[in-house]
Amino acid sequence: MMALRLLRRTVAALCLACASAAMSGLVSTGALAQSRQPVVVASKIDTEGALLGEMIALVLEHQGIPVEKRVSLGPTKVVRTALLSGEIDIYPEYTGNGAFFHDIPNDKAWTKAQSAFELVKKLDKEKYNLVWLDRAPANNTWLIAVRGDLARRENLATMEDFARLAKRGGVLKLAGSAEFVESPAALPAFERVYDFKLPRDQIVILPGGDTAVTMRAAAQGVSGVNSAMVYGTDGAIAALDLVVMEDTRGAQIVYEPAPVVRAEVLNRYPAMAQTLSRVFGSLSLNRLQSLNAQIAVEGQPAREVAKSYLEQQGLLP
């Protein structure tokens, strides 16, 4: 009888040990599966968005992080909503858009690079637990570019110079989108800060917000156009012989690109922060213009341009 009891106790202990081991194995397997969940990398549906999205994906892949790509997902609203809902994990955004994400467009912090970055970083972390990694020193804001021949003839380099010529009257003709012409933060802001008023019969409003269209209109002199709405890092600026007017007084919000990632994902893969900071820190205005031109002007695939750049800079050994 005693032997039978001992046998039962031994069997019960063995069963309990096996069950405990099985449970431990399930927990470990579950934790491993969770830790290997792919990071969903997205970007906006434009040339620079695709370039920067591919750079992020390549860096994470090189670090052995599983990646699911949704590059060129959509416009700002679509991509931002996807990040907030957890549908995507990381994408390149622009500091100045924080003015509209948090509904404080008139805060002067947005017109300076450092304060714009610090403010959006603080607000997004507090409200949404999103982390802004280091930004690129390249302002992709709204600007005005003038045909090279006119700029050279009239010695145009800054918005003060543009305002001087605008006041002369009858010389400048600008191509822009309805948003650029009408939004208080765009052309009206330039006019207010630099004290000029471009008559509306000297403005050609083109549908959509595609700067490739406005730049071509200026370069080709379509309907007498000789200046255009552009973005600071547009790749075709140099190729079309356009000269960007420097916004010396900070009329425009600063839009510098940076990766924005959900804190939960960054905690899971903390090594991405340092490497992505090195990548974005290397992207000057001229470099981004050149890389964008390889895609928009030369027709090279965004991933190939991104990979070549990272390898040349020793950022993807």
Structure description:
The chain is an alpha/beta fold. Helices cover 50% and strands 15% of the residues. The chain is built from 14 helices and 10 strands. The protein has helices at 2-35, 47-62, 76-85, 98-101, 113-128, 148-154, 159-168, 178-182, 187-194, 211-220, 263-268, 271-281, 285-296, 302-312, and strands at 39-44, 67-74, 90-94, 130-132, 142-147, 174-176, 203-205, 227-231, 242-244, 257-262. The strands form 3 sheets. It has a 5-stranded mixed sheet with strand order 7-6-8-5-9. Helix 2 (47-62) packs across helix 12. The radius of gyration is 26 Å and the shape is globular. The protein starts with a helix and ends in a 5-residue tail after the last helix. The model is unreliable at 1-34 (pLDDT under 50).
Features of this protein?
about 15% strand, alpha/beta, disordered N terminus, 14 helices, about 325 residues, 3-stranded antiparallel β-sheet, 10 strands, globular, 5-stranded mixed β-sheet
How is this fold's topology laid out?
Layout: H1 2-35, E1 39-44, H2 47-62, E2 67-74, H3 76-85, E3 90-94, H4 98-101, H5 113-128, E4 130-132, E5 142-147, H6 148-154, H7 159-168, E6 174-176, H8 178-182, H9 187-194, E7 203-205, H10 211-220, E8 227-231, E9 242-244, E10 257-262, H11 263-268, H12 271-281, H13 285-296, H14 302-312
Parallel strand pairs: 1-2, 6-7, 6-8
Antiparallel strand pairs: 3-10, 4-10, 5-8, 5-9
